[in-house]
């Protein structure tokens, strides 16, 4: 049992790759489709706007009983009483985030290699976001796809739940889960689909969640 | 006497309007030229980069015995142990920043109108950044120039030190100071000059500071 409520199907809301749906639209549809974690990722809005959106997303997640995680911005997480932050390599340092946010808040770290994952553990992260596992159209990361094997090795070495990210869709979910991933995180597989709710449902079913 | 160390010549380091000097270059030259507050304003770098730069700037300010202020980013201010934050209308909310940062940290708010300045006071700001007073090439603000009179009226009404900003240079400093400003904040008048140190010195002399 994990000490914290870390979901298996993290949907990152994105309004850069698509502009048809708002963060709030995406969160609602993803939750209706079975997502159990919403991560707010926004790089270009003003801090004030980010906080406004984050507070709304937090409200939606509270209603659904799901953890709400903010990507990168510890200030926005604090202002929206987020349940957690996800901190990439170029984001806020994990040890300092832990100091500021306390022990109860979920902190996720990003890893592309075993060494990154070990650093996440040493830094005090609660889970590892590993990838990009597969080629991804989200291009969030300049890194080449890791493939399954390096993730599998990292999972065996680092005693943290691994959330696989990068190019994951309903057809390859089973592969990452068989490699020992605890769950998955998706962006374009939900946000860039014509029906984000249905797209989430396909992933949720592929993960064997819910009904 | 002010309770906190609020400078009279705030130089905002900028690497958008110019790319010849780094934030650190600008801070050093501004301090050598007589600036008594450095404000770090950076919107496009990664959080990790911002923190790295902010920590260096804080070091330079500590050596010089000057307050170091971070624009907008409370997370970066926390990570760099900044002496203060400057929060514009689209930035982090002042009351929440006060709660997170404590009573000793300097918090500046932005105001274009008397009402804004009153809100800064009510929110718990330590000073008001008022402007743009004059037309500015920095285009930081979509607002039209306020001119001197509205600032003068706000200064008489709101019992906080006012730092005038927007289009201020050595030739109009006396006008804003005669209107009751406590000090000035500049961007392009220092950062976009061929000799930022000398440009700062001209302003410092116009303010009657130092030697």
Kindly describe this structure:
The structure is a homodimer of 211-residue chains. Chain A is built from 9 helices and 8 strands. In chain A, helix 1 runs parallel beside helix 2 (47-64). In chain A, strand 5, helix 5 and strand 6 (127-130) form a beta-alpha-beta unit. By secondary structure, chain A is α/β, with parallel strands linked by helices. Chain A starts with 8 loop residues before the first strand and ends in a 5-residue tail after the last helix. In chain A, strands 1-2-3-4-5-6-7-8 form an 8-stranded parallel beta barrel, surrounded by 5 helices. The longest helix of chain A has 18 residues, at 47-64. The interface between A and B is medium-sized, with 18 and 18 residues.
Helices, strands, pairings?
2 copies of one chain form a homodimer.
Chain A: E1 9-13, H1 23-33, E2 37-40, H2 47-64, E3 68-71, H3 74-79, E4 84-87, H4 94-101, E5 106-111, H5 114-123, E6 127-130, H6 148-157, E7 162-165, H7 173-178, E8 183-186, H8 188-191, H9 196-206
Parallel strand pairs in A: 1-2, 1-8, 2-3, 3-4, 4-5, 5-6, 6-7, 7-8
Helix pairs in contact in A: 1-2, 1-9, 5-6
Annotation keywords:
40% helix; globular; homodimer; TIM Barrel; 211 residues; 9 helices; eight-stranded parallel barrel
Write down the domain tally of chain A. 1
> What's the mean pLDDT score of chain A?
95
Unreliable spans of chain A are none
CATH topology (level 3) name of chain A? TIM Barrel
Q: Number of helical runs of chain A?
A: 9
Please identify the top-level CATH class of chain A: Alpha Beta
Determine the N-to-C terminus distance of chain A. 21 Å
Strand order of the largest sheet of chain A: 1-2-3-4-5-6-7-8
CATH architecture of chain A: Alpha-Beta Barrel
Helix and strand run of chain A: EHEHEHEHEHEHEHEHH
The global form of chain A is globular
Alpha carbon gyration radius of chain A = 15 Å
What class do helices, strands and sheet pairing of chain A give? Answer: alpha/beta
Portion in beta strands of chain A? 15-25%
Biggest beta sheet summary of chain A? 8 strands, parallel, barrel
* Chain oligomer state: homodimer
Instruction: Tell me the greatest interface.
Output: A-B, 18 and 18 residues
CATH level 4 superfamily of chain A: Aldolase class I
Q: Write down how many β-strands of chain A occur, each being a DSSP E stretch of 2 or more residues.
A: 8
């Amino acid at each position: 049992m994990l000490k914290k409520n870390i979901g298996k199907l993290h949907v990152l809301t994105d309004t850069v790759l698509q502009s048809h749906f708002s963060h709030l639209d995406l969160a609602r549809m993803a939750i209706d489709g079975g997502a159990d974690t919403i991560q707010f990722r926004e790089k270009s809005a003003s801090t004030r706007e980010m906080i406004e959106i984050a507070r709304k997303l937090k409200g939606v997640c509270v209603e659904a009983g799901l953890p709400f995680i903010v990507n990168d911005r510890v200030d926005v997480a604090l202002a929206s009483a987020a349940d957690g932050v996800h901190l990439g390599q170029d984001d806020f340092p994990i040890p300092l985030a832990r100091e500021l946010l306390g022990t109860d808040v979920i902190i996720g770290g990003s890893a592309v290699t075993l060494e990154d994952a070990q650093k996440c553990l040493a830094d005090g992260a609660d889970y590892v976001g590993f990838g990009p596992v597969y080629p991804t159209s989200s291009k969030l990361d300049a890194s080449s796809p890791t493939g399954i094997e390096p993730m599998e090795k990292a999972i065996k070495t680092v005693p943290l739940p691994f959330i696989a990210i990068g190019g994951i869709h309903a057809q390859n979910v089973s592969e990452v889960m068989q490699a020992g991933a605890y769950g998955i995180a998706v962006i374009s597989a939900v946000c860039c689909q014509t029906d984000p709710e249905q797209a989430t449902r396909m992933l949720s079913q592929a993960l064997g969640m819910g009904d």
